[in-house]
Amino acid sequence: MSRSSAICLSLALTASVATAEVTFLQVAPLLRKSCIECHSAPKKDPSGKMVNPKGGLRMDAPSHMLKGGSGGPGVEPGDPDKSLIYARILLPPDHEDAMPPKGKGTPLTFPQTELIKQWIIEGGKFGDWKGSDAAATVTPAPATTKTKTLDPLASGLGVPPEDAIKKLMSMGCVVHPVAPDSKLLSVAWVATPGAVGDQEMEFLKPLGANISELDLSDTKITDASVAIIGTFPRVTKLNLSSTAVTDSGIASLKGLVNLDWLSVHSTSVSDASIETLKGLRKLKNVYLWKTHVSSSSAGTLQKALPGSVVSIE
Amino acid sequence: MTLNSADEFSRRQFLLNIAKASLGVTVAPMLGASVATAADFVPIRPRAAKSVIFLMMSGGMSHLDTLDVMGKKDTVLGKTKPLATSVSGISISENLPKTAKQMQHIVLFNGMSTTQGAHEQGQYLMERSYIMRGTIVHPATGSWVVRLGGKRNNNLPGFVAVSTDPNNAAGGFMGAKYSGVPIGEPGEGLQDSMKPGSISQGDFDKRLSLADSLNKQFHTQVNNSAIREHKGLYDDALRLMRCEDLKAFDVKQEPSEVKGLYGPSRFGQGCMLARRLVEHGVRYVQVSLGGWDTHYDNFTAVPARAKDLDDGLAALLQDLHRRGMLQDTLVAVGTEFGRTPEIITEHEDGRDHYPKAFSCLMAGGGLQGGRVHGKKDDKGGNVTDGLTNPQDFNATIAYSLGLPVDQVIISPSGRPFTIADKGKPVVELFS
Amino acid sequence: MTRHLFAMKLRLTCTTLTLFAAATVAHAQLAKKTVDLGNDPAWVKKTALEIDKRVAQGFAKAKVTPIAGADDSKWLRRVYLDSIGRIPSYDEAKAFLDDSAADKREKLITKLLNSEGWVSTTYNWYADILRATSRLGTDGTRSGVPYLRWLRESVATNKPWDKMVYELITTNGGGWEEGKGAVGYFERDRGMPLDNMANTTRIFLGTHIECAQCHDHPYDTWKQKDFYEMSAFTHGLKTGTPKEEQRKYVNEKYNGKTNQDPDKTKRDIYRWLQDNIYDFGVWGDGKGNIMLPTDFKGKGGKPGDTVPAKSIYPGASGSKTRDMKDAREEFAEWVTEPQNPRFTLIMVNRIWKRTMGIGLFEPVDKFVMPSKDNPGTVVNNPDVLKYLEGMLKELNYDVKTFQKVLLNTRTYALGTNRDAVDPRAGYAFHGRAVKRMTAEQVWDSMGTLVVPDIDYRKGGALSPNAVVGGRNLGKSVYEVYKEVINMKPAEISAWVDKIISYGGSKGGGDDMMMMDKSMMASNDAAAANMTDAAKWSAYSKEILRASELSSPTPPQHFLRKFGQSSREVIEGGSSESDVTQVLSLINGHVEKNIVNDSRAVVYKSIDAAATPEDKVKAAFIGILTRNPTPAELELMLPEAKKGREGIKNILYALLNSNEFIFIL
Q: With 60 as the cut, is the pLDDT of residue C518 above it?
């Protein structure tokens, strides 16, 4: 741009911007030129070594772009700031995360980045493009080491029903996968727990197989609900503190063999539950403050469960 | 369930969609649901912490008289004496006897170092991870946490700042909706959340219904999402006033045993409030304790401050632990810089600002406690191992919460920022 | 241009006299001309029409039809809020609505622009733009009061914008030296001269170069070197005063390791002397060159190179090898000259936005030229913008007269656009876009309902009263400055001893008598202020115009809750609504300070009304500036018949209606 001149100024004053909706067809050539080389399915390099997509982000299909990589979703429809593909191309060229990196891909100009931004704002629709999604089998994304440890628990498990999750969330319950890509859920009734009782368990049941972490502390649930929780096979962390749970409720948890964390503080649970808890061999953390469990029983439990910490105060 | 009906949910969605549709308007209730909810957020690692309690020691806490006494020469320690802790091989100052008993939960950060030697700049860097500039205001870490991790309880603010200068808890370029909601005195509750005593319930209802009738007429004249949004906020406000979660702010509900545990000081009671808030799903609570600027008479001033810190911190760790909340809650103690190893006799044995080396701590939040990260030389003046700057410290907080430290947020002026600037989380402390 | 002759005068030493004389004459003539134009109804009408014609041409292009004009009530409320920042009181509204004169709108505009309310709200507007605060610097140790007083006085005397900017950039002197308040502009950013330059460029020229502070700009053309070339103009400027010996002495006395004063009160006084006298101000000129920093990584230079000053748009430059004595003047002259491609453009758009609600382009502080990398800023109506530029130049940067013309346009008087308007999507100005009141408008409008003649009620936020070591000296800090600035250390010590023994009246004392007359728009107003002080004594000290409170107010104040700028960044205010605002509307301020205050002036007209019908009407006119509809009258009558408790319900409902807080 030439430095200020009257001519330039008058140009500025008459410039205008077309307002037609941006289609993926307009955006695709930019992505092809500037991004796709490093952001596509894992492939072998000339030496035979597997090369994974950079940052875990693939841009060769709508599903991959929506899912994104380690830094967040590639495309968050309607929100360019949350969309990795926009946020990164906006960085100054000398920024270490700037895309495309120096020497790779064609740098994008301002109108091009604006085009991409507009496309995302307008919903980031892909039109007819399917990319590699069209292939018969979709290569599963490589599992990260963190989620791998949970994989055995999730094996054979289906995707949790979306409508059941939405329903719970509308009631003030926090529901999210325990980690990216996991089918296991963390469920916590955080808002207005005092309004939650046994009748709300109906809404948890459809997710029972997927629930790994469950926090129902401060709710009005009773042993009737705890019995239902006892049928959720993948529960690893359970918080029943400040509820009406009793020893008979605890007895119904004997099938939760994956449980490694349990809090029942501020309940009427007593020494009678110790035998049940001893049978839950994976238990590592047990919280018994303000229960009727004696300190000697707590000590017995800690001894019976190798490597565990049983806290009574 | 009467308050959070499905209809309520769809109304919110409706508002959100309207706001998205008209680009000029952002939906911005501070306490409402439009700040991203936790539902949108998936932690990058399992069993990530859910909340942070950040205890800010403003004024510059003397590391040599609190957290870093191990292997230090008597000449730099002055009157301060070491005290063994619950973890063998680790000692801290005798000014923190109760904290010493909680060492099994604590990681000492003895390799802290900052570039800022003045209070405002130092606090700014510690609380926001960026150097203070005249051209932009960076958001506080709590604002980042809510922005990236959403709220867990939509009835309550995501970020609360107790006894903290609200300027130090500002949302900066993210706007007021991400600012920490200020609570001056721990006992005072959320401002204006109760119907004034001068209005009877009948008149209160009457007044709002009259206003509602006026609005109906007004809304036929205009078709504007900002106005509809403003009207919707009245429903949110009334819902909040009726909401049981508001009791999170009411420290009077604590039994006297618990109140006693935290000690009588404003800071101790602030720590207790922080626990209540976190229990009800608040993401980030900052509680500040001032008076650490001990240029004069350091060896009288520090023990007095340390007593409040010791009461509050030790109680907080003990109370969170027995409730099973410590793994889900990261407790951090930060300060803007340390103080000089030299004891200035002309100032009644004072210590001056010392940014080059200082100490902070963290506990809970998935950290393996009973450890020391970083080391200084025997004068306490140089970091010799495990150098940690404020950005690294905040990146570690973000990592504890399972937040993406590399997620870029673009400011309205078009500049890119991340939660902890270029800080690197100390991930090895989490296993 | 007067000011340029002024600048030349500073450079030419020999022929100064004649030039100076010429300059003075020219200034007087120009000033007269401007005032005349503003006072010539024919000129105002003609000029307003020229604007309307150009706006109307835009309707056809945008394929819109103008929305029928606002009725008297709507226009009245709008013009009060846009020109003096608050709603009209019952009496003011009634007087206008009952007036049947054909030119009553023109007359009201003139009256409002010459009122104290205009000074109040214009001062807020500038304080937001300039980031002018009551405490300066990152640690807030220096007082922003003299800077704010300079600003207030500049507004009260309608100082032309170019002259204001020239003073901001070039003033040298003590912070509390009489007439030198503009030094606050640099003291504001003490220790951060580069950030200050980035703000300067953005405020006055609508150009964002702050990215180039650390690296070449990715999309705009600015390079890091451009940034440093600009910064070279002010590089060399020093904050504080040249009184190094005195500064060191008082510093040692309050903070030294060897010679510290043992008396705590004396230490406080020495500290006060440092912060308010010896280490407060701006001196030294810009050198006109600067060394590139060690981490310089842009193109066209390397770390350690010295580069001469060079403006980002052609016009001014310095020298690499020779320090200039007046680089700041050179710079200020270049910034403010009519040929500068941005200076006029940016201000014109700011005043347009302030008056019309939406800028001709947005954001108002960012104007980007089109280039191969950037489509550039879209201007809603380029013809209007061009015309307005010429007009502000013709008016010699008289902001008030400029706004007067805009308020007199038919464009301003159009009806309300019932749909939401996105300022970034382009707008033809075929109707008024609905906006929520700013924080200041909400606060000041509510204050209007409580305190009589609130525009004239003064607080202590701008008081120059000297309170030293807990002693009210009964004089201004300006006077203390004159008294002590040239003292030798021994004299300073004696002065401090004198203060200690003086005792004085203890405590703060926000004595409003200290407000000098220059701060008022007119002497009549000042006189009225003095005599009417008694009528305010019954009202809460907190209920003052926003301009009379600290800048900004504390973070928990009503104003901040409603989005008052922290004044840390340029125009940082917000009109977004949130739940804490609604809580203070339903549980806080409205009930506690208005409805439940039986002395609130809003009750006067209601109590005076004889029938319940008239009481409802009085409430509607006092709060919503209009009569109730038959349905509304019917709705409210049962309450009005209940007596005071019912009236309270009506007031509360009106104040909590959406119509109160949104401007149509």
A: no
pLDDT tier at C529, thresholds 50, 70, 90: low
Angstroms from A293 CA to nearest CA on chain B: 14
How large is the ipTM?
0.88
Spatial distance between the Cα atoms of C376 and C381, rounded to a whole number of angstroms = 15
The minimal CB distance from A191 to the residues B20, B153, B402 is found for B153
Is B323 in contact with A70 (Cβ distance < 8 A)? no
CB contact under 8 A, C370 and A94: no
Tokens of C101: 């004169």
> Mutating which of C130, C195, C579, C620 best tests the B interface, going by the most B Cβ atoms within 10 A?
C579
Rounded (10°) angle between helices B141-149 and B390-400: 30
pLDDT score for B22: 31
Tell me the backbone φ, ψ of residue C389, rounded to 5 degrees.
-60, -50
Amino acid at B75: T
The SS3 call for residue A113 is helix
Q: At how many degrees (to 10) do helices C477-484 and C145-156 cross?
A: 120
Q: In Å, how far are A146, A180, B339 from B43, measured between CA atoms?
A: 11, 7, 37
The position carrying tokens 């001014």 is C316
- Core vs surface per residue B418-428: b (16+ CB within 10 A) or e: bbbbebebbee
Farthest CA pair distance, chain A: 90
Entry field: residues in chain B: 431
Of chain C, the end-to-end C-alpha distance in Å amounts to 40
What is the per-residue DSSP string for C625-664? Answer: SSPPPHHHHHHHHHHHHT-HHHHHHHHHHHHTSHHHHEE-
Nearest C-alpha of chain B: how many angstroms from A57?
13
Contacts of B23 in chain A (CB under 8 A): 121
Q: What is the DSSP letter of A198?
A: G
Q: What residues are paired with C291 via a beta bridge?
A: C306
Please give the structure tokens belonging to residue C66.
């103008």
> Which residues in chain A are closer than 8 Å to B416, comparing Cβ atoms?
87, 90-92, 95
Q: What is the DSSP letter of C120?
A: H
Cα-Cα-Cα-Cα torsion C462, C463, C469, C470, nearest 10 degrees, comes to: -110
Chains sharing 3 or more CB pairs under 8 A with chain A: B, C
**Percentage above 90 pLDDT, chain C:** 74
Contact C131, C185 (CB under 8 A): no
The contacts found for C518-525 with CB under 8 angstroms, 24 or more apart, are: C518/C153, C518/C156, C518/C157, C519/C149, C519/C152, C519/C153, C519/C156, C519/C462, C520/C116, C520/C119, C520/C156, C521/C114, C521/C115, C521/C116, C521/C118, C521/C119, C521/C156, C522/C114, C525/C116, C525/C456
User: What pLDDT, on the 0 to 100 scale, is given for residue A130?
Assistant: 73
| Min distance B238 CA to chain C CA atoms (Å) | 8
Contacts for C34 with CB less than 8 Å, ≥ 6 apart: C160, C395, C396, C398, C401
Cβ partners under 8 Å of residue C614, min gap 6: none
Rounded distance, CA B37 to CA A168, Å?
Answer: 13
Q: Is A94 on the interface with C (CB under 8 A)?
A: yes
Q: What is the DSSP track for C320-382?
A: SSS--S-HHHHHHHHHHSTTSTTHHHHHHHHHHHHHHSS-SSSSTT-----BTTB--PPPS-H
Query: What would the two tokens of residue A78 be?
Result: 């309607």
C155: left (phi over 0), alpha (psi -120 to 50) or beta: alpha
pLDDT for A69 equals 79
To which H or E segment does residue B312 belong? helix B298-322
**Three-state SS sequence of B330-349:** EEEEEECCEECCCCEHHHCC
CA of B91: how far to CAs of B57, B99, C390, in Å?
20, 11, 75
Question: pLDDT of B409-431, one tens digit each?
Answer: 988 878 899 999 999 999 999 97
